[in-house]
Specification:
Length: 193
């Protein structure tokens, strides 16, 4: 099985430098154009199943990239919850919370603000991969968020959350994971723009 995992296009939260977390922030016009470009990159591929985070920016991206398929919405594919920082400006929060916020952003541990940790993301990613591994499918498309993508990477490559901020994933780029019952999960491509 090949699992094509797309990060959503640029959202209003990305553009305005907001903590999006579990907010229902939509794509910007530029994010929509990114999704149209991604559609061209995968137009020769067919997918047996399509899943998406239930957050607006991921669902919109899925519907643009694969307009003939309605994705199955899965809350396990959500971005990290940032608690009460949701929809607040990153720079203003940095000024208000200083080192506590810097630590949270570096480690993806937002429990101080009533949110989740990177480990929570990794556990959600693991649950999703376990369910997908049971499917009779050759190619599966997934539309999600950068944090959850790092959660998938952590499950596949490590036994713990990868906190390294240098592991990035561009908007509307995709990564490809592979699965076989004999070998388990592997990574074929990361951040294929």
């Amino acid at each position: 099985m090949k699992l094509y995992v797309f990060r959503h296009g640029e959202s209003v939260g990305n553009r305005q430098r907001l903590f999006s977390g579990w907010s229902q922030t939509p794509l910007t016009p530029y994010g929509e154009s990114q999704a149209l470009a991604a559609r061209k990159n995968v137009e020769n591929l067919t997918f047996d199943r399509v899943f998406s985070s239930d957050l607006t920016r991921a669902v919109q991206t899925a519907r643009i990239v694969l307009p003939d398929v309605e994705p199955v919405l899965d809350p396990d594919l959500r971005e990290v919850s940032v608690g009460y920082l949701t929809e607040r400006n990153v720079d203003e929060c940095q000024e208000q919370y200083g080192d506590a916020l810097q630590y949270s952003r570096r480690t993806r541990d937002f429990t101080f603000f009533g949110g989740e940790t990177g480990e929570d993301l990794r556990l959600r990613a693991g649950r999703f991969l376990q369910r997908v591994s049971q499917l009779d499918a050759e190619q599966v498309a997934v539309f999600t968020h950068e944090g959850l993508m790092k959660g998938l990477l952590s499950v596949v490559l490590c036994s713990t959350w990868i906190p390294d901020q240098r592991v990035r994933h561009a908007n509307c780029a995709y990564s490809v994971f592979t699965y076989s019952p004999e070998m388990g999960w592997g990574l074929l491509k990361w951040n294929n723009e």
